[in-house]
TrEMBL record:
Name this protein carries in UniProt: Spaetzle domain-containing protein
PANTHER family linked to this entry: NEUROTROPHIN 1-RELATED
One GO process term, biological-process aspect: central nervous system formation
GO molecular function: growth factor activity; Toll binding
GO cellular component: extracellular region
Taxonomic lineage of the native organism: Eukaryota, Metazoa, Ecdysozoa, Arthropoda, Hexapoda
Species this protein is from: Exocentrus adspersus
Length: 218
């Protein structure tokens, strides 16, 4: 059973400092409880990239900055925070221990866990100061049309097998002392990055539509 967990997620023995109470969130776990994200700052797969941290506030998030101020911000973050590049939408690397998740069909699935083991996943979240705000380092004309949005992807997890979401492509596995409960592999949604998106100028677009309509009526 535990060998299968290695395919689905990072599984560690639980200690008292690994979690602290339940936290509710809306996007990937549908209001279900989830343990607090790990405060560990660096992990083996970070490479040379230095992620941001929720505990360190961003400088004037969402505000337009001119070229000179942008260069000053670049120097500040590359020199003082020892990173080679900076994000238009800063990203935070976090480790989570969810009780369940949303699969590709939008169905909530319950993850395998017991008193000794919980499944852990790495997530890349938008920094809380920049989420749904204009992107940094944007041209003045596009600044207010930009926005930092949370991205999601899917990863394997070992979940409780139920007829409602049974995936015939994956085998089922019994758990020791589970009273007949079986588990199977499925996908769950995880946060996978923070992306800068730019929308068309609504005023200009409506003005063009109105002009075309008047031209057609002539």
């Amino acid at each position: 059973m535990l060998e299968v967990l290695g395919l689905a997620a990072v599984v560690h023995q639980v200690n008292s400092y690994d979690y602290d109470g339940d936290e509710h969130f809306e996007d990937s776990l549908l209001h279900e409880s989830r343990y607090r994200r790990s405060s560990r700052k660096r992990h083996f797969h970070e490479g040379s990239y230095a992620y941001y941290d929720h505990s360190i506030p961003l400088t004037s998030p969402g505000m337009y900055r001119g070229p000179r101020d942008n260069q000053a911000l670049l120097r500040f973050e590359t020199i003082n925070r020892t990173r080679d590049v900076v994000d238009c939408c800063p990203t935070v690397l976090e480790m989570v221990e969810p009780a369940g998740g949303k699969n590709q069909d939008g169905i909530y699935v319950e993850l395998y866990r017991d008193h000794s083991y919980k499944q852990r996943f790495y997530e890349l979240s938008c920094h809380k100061d920049i989420l749904d705000k204009p992107c940094r380092f944007m041209d003045k004309k596009l600044h207010n049309q930009s926005r930092c949005v949370q991205q999601h992807s899917y990863t394997y997890a070992l979940v409780k097998d139920t007829p409602n979401h049974r995936n015939k492509n994956f085998p089922t596995f019994p758990a020791n002392g589970s009273g007949g409960v079986t588990y199977t592999l499925d996908y769950i949604s995880v946060r996978s990055g923070c992306s800068c998106v730019v929308a068309p100028n609504k005023r200009k677009r409506n003005k063009i539509k109105h002009k075309r309509k008047n031209d057609d009526e002539r």
